[in-house]
């Protein structure tokens, strides 16, 4: 029997008030083990699609199923939100604590970890991303690339079952991008990655879905 979809969007429609449809009867699935590249021109609606998956925007019609839960209300999404990790397009939307360690520990603490466990998880996550020694750095003094990695650390520290990564390579130099590529390839979680960096996607993605004119088209028939 095939594995159940981690994400299943069926016939979803969405438009911002009074503007053209961003999604027009679009369909999408994510299965265990997949790393799906989500591509499309600027303004196609890729970030909006992530916000729909997190329940930050509600569809006008169609069904949203996340981790085997049909999600309609805010309550439905609240129940699964901790299991889905969203890397925001803008790191400054993700980082709001004075120091790096506080930012990374915030998620585990919020999910009920003890102080000691949250600290241990945070140190390990930072080390895995090559960020040893960053613990006491002032978050808003970090470079753009450093903020990108710390933002990713805040997501990974929550040990989500699905990753939604919005432009993860923004601001990274070649060496750090290569390290990030290896890290993403080694993670067990299924993920969707929005990026305009085609060389990076070629290394990481197992298939590509392109978003255009309200539709989501996979390069692999499902
Ligand atoms: N709050 C809003 N109100 C009205 N329109 C919006 C709002 N947010 C986004 N849009 C519009 O919806 C469309 C989709 O935006 P979105 O950010 O999802 O696109 P995207 O594919 O992620 O773009 P990019 O590749 O440039 O990041 C764009 O035309 C954008 O201007």
UniProtKB/TrEMBL annotation:
<dbReference type="Pfam" id="PF00005">
    <property type="entry name" value="ABC_tran"/>
</dbReference>
<dbReference type="InterPro" id="IPR003439">
    <property type="entry name" value="ABC_transporter-like_ATP-bd"/>
</dbReference>
<dbReference type="InterPro" id="IPR050095">
    <property type="entry name" value="ECF_ABC_transporter_ATP-bd"/>
</dbReference>
<dbReference type="GO" id="GO:0005524">
    <property type="term" value="F:ATP binding"/>
</dbReference>
<dbReference type="InterPro" id="IPR003593">
    <property type="entry name" value="AAA+_ATPase"/>
</dbReference>
<dbReference type="InterPro" id="IPR027417">
    <property type="entry name" value="P-loop_NTPase"/>
</dbReference>
<keyword id="KW-0547">Nucleotide-binding</keyword>
<dbReference type="InterPro" id="IPR015856">
    <property type="entry name" value="ABC_transpr_CbiO/EcfA_su"/>
</dbReference>
<protein>
    <submittedName>
        <fullName>Energy-coupling factor ABC transporter ATP-binding protein</fullName>
    </submittedName>
</protein>
<comment type="similarity">
    <text>Belongs to the ABC transporter superfamily.</text>
</comment>
<keyword id="KW-0067">ATP-binding</keyword>
<keyword id="KW-0813">Transport</keyword>
<feature type="domain" description="ABC transporter">
    <location>
        <begin position="7"/>
        <end position="220"/>
    </location>
</feature>
<dbReference type="InterPro" id="IPR017871">
    <property type="entry name" value="ABC_transporter-like_CS"/>
</dbReference>
């Amino acid at each position: 029997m095939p594995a159940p979809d981690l994400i299943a969007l069926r016939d979803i429609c969405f438009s911002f008030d009074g503007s053209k449809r961003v999604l027009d009867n679009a369909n999408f699935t994510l299965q265990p083990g997949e790393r799906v590249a989500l591509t499309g021109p600027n303004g196609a609606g890729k970030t909006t699609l992530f916000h729909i998956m997190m329940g930050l925007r509600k569809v006008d019609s169609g069904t949203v199923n996340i981790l085997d839960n049909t999600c309609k209300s805010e309550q439905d999404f609240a129940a699964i939100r901790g299991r889905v990790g969203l890397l925001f397009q803008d790191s400054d939307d993700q980082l709001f604590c004075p120091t790096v360690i506080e930012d990374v520990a915030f998620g585990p603490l919020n999910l009920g970890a003890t102080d000691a466990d949250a600290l241990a998880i945070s140190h390990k996550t930072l080390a895995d991303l090559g960020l040893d020694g960053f613990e006491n750095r002032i978050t808003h003094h970090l470079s753009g690339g450093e903020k990108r990695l710390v933002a990713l650390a805040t997501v990974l520290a929550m040990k989500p079952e699905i990753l939604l990564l919005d432009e993860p390579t923004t601001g990274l130099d070649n060496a750090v991008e290569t390290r990030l590529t290896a890290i993403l390839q080694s993670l067990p979680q299924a993920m969707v990655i929005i990026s305009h960096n085609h060389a990076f996607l070629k290394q990481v993605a197992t298939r590509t879905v392109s978003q255009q004119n309200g539709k989501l088209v996979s390069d692999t028939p499902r």
